[in-house]
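Field: sequence (string)
Field: structure_tokens (string)

Example rows 1 and 2, in order.
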Amino acid sequence: MRGGGGESKATPSAAASTDCFSCSGRSRKMRGVSLALPLALLVAFCAAAAPQLVGAARGDNSLRIIQNDIIETINKHPNAGWTAGHNPYFANYTITQFKHILGVKPTPPALLAGVPTKSYSRSMKLPTEFDARSQWSGCSTIGTILDQGHCGSCWAFGAVECLQDRFCIHLNMNISLSVNDLLACCGFLCGSGCNGGYPISAWRYFRRKGVVTDECDPYFDQVGCKHPGCEPAYRTPKCEKKCKVQNEVWKEQKHFSVDAYRVHSNPHDIMAEVYTNGPVEVAFTVYEDFAHYKSGVYKHITGGVMGGHAVKLIGWGTSDAGEDYWLLANQWNRGWGDDGYFKIIRGKNECGIEEDVVAGMPSTKNMARNYDDAFGTAIL
């Protein structure tokens, strides 16, 4: 994700300023007749020519993120390729609250220094359709849709989800790892906790410090409050380094990655990485219309930039209409999108989806059990 934005599409606000200029230009060209027109009529002419802007473009962040005019625009668009609707997950969210949960910060170049980038031979044969859920059907975590609550912790969720999937794929371990450990204990090296972070730094944390199980340090507490995303304060939890379960020792619950790397932005390389090693974490730019996604192959149609978001990419395919897509799992529970999943057009770097792909391999470090080569390529 480049500077919080992916592709260089014009936002409604930019379009508005262009139309305003055109409108004023038309009024200048009409000087010969404008004196004969009532001022009110001339104002009405300009107002009719200007686009009707949605909430963020109007600068009103107190509006609800779910807006009927966006739904109508998408569903009437002849080339949208996807369906919009009212997602229950965001029923009470304002634009400000929606922006807050988009927690991917623009990655400082210094953080990428020394990070290797993986690519694959173009001769590698790949299937036309792929779904990690069916490829590794014994790994239940791949198909689990999580809930980040009101915290801007997507950068942490995407990383933890992919690492636990890879522990199952390569080491035959079905485990749930702790988002809370990463969120609370990585500190400024990963960003600002619930106020956003850097996906590549999450993977570096796995390599250096490891991450405990979710049982040891759960993201949700036991009293019905979404921890750490409780409203109205979006506080990052404190790093306690202490298991919530009796008789569990923090250091003994740590699970590590061997490495942290980027994947080359070519679709073939991304597909090859997922096909070979499992799901990857991707970051992309979110626009207003994305909050309304229900089904189909998403592409940005309308609305302003909201922020950066990280999710888990689990596969690919081609729609009945012939559009190549990526298949991804979001962490906005199943009350959003297609039961928590979404598809986005593949091969066009839509919203920057192909330019910030990160991952790592699971390690047997700190694990009592000895794994033989049958369980994968991960090493100490």
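Row 2 begins here:
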Amino acid sequence: MSSSSPHPPTPQGPGSVFQAPNLPTGFTDTFTSRYVDTDGLRLHAVTGGEGPALLLVCGWPQTWYAWRLLMPALAQDFQVVAVDPRGVGLSDKPLDGYDTGTLASDLVALMAALGHHRFAMVGHDIGMWTGYALAADHPNHLDRLAVAEATVPGLSPSPPLLGSTQSNDRLWHFAFNRLSEVNEQLVKGREHLYFGHQFATKAARKLPDYAVRHYIDTLACDPEALRASFAFYRALDATIAQNQQRRTRQLTLPVLTIAGAQNSGELVGNTMKLAAHDVESLIIDNCGHYPAEETPEDMLAALTTFLAPYRHQDNHDTALR
């Protein structure tokens, strides 16, 4: 691994693989936590497995832990990198850089530091925003892109301010999260109320209490984590402007979209069809916003099929182990 620090410390605490709750049996035999320093930014990633590189990017308000149920099976065929992006989990939380152009550049630098010039990527929620930016801005680095459970601001049409009750229930947090200060004041000390409501209302199959508690405690234990969680939304003006430029050139790589029938449905596929020529779409029944945790078997089956051509290619980079 190449980094600006020859001996970065070992990640510790509940946000690391070493103390995360209720991991699959044998998880830590395959996966380890590491810090990677890139251009002054330290990112936390959980890595393990053999094969071509596969980057997993979580959404709001989750961490790398969202992928835990998929990672052991994926590691049989891929070198898995599940990252805490800028502002998330154990990664650095600078004051700025939360537009998707910067987030995408962060991830290219992360993968390069791990020895991966080309890779495939799976992104959920804000990870889908970042995946679109990475595919558009860095096409020579990305082989295949799978995205789940989001639309892309500046690419897909914005919903009306006064839409249906169902739309408002699903999207009201966008406007709230973009506020400059009062949202932090309202949520601080009430993180379990605010974020707990997000998980409870967006899942068709209830997430385990220990997982929800893990995500919320991660945000509640550090004021910088709460501030950073809103920073992705406060950067939306920049992200929207970037996406309005990106949409002028179509993506040529294969794209898989995954959605829960009880949440985004056709919106995810319709969004990426605005951006790419080669789009395959899956809508999972009895699933809400969190397919990697609500229906991991269905998501794993879709990813296995979609990534098979990438897995069997002969020209992949070899990671610096």
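free_text_note (row 2): The beta strands are 32-38, 41-48, 53-57, 79-84, 119-124, 142-148, 255-260, 279-284.
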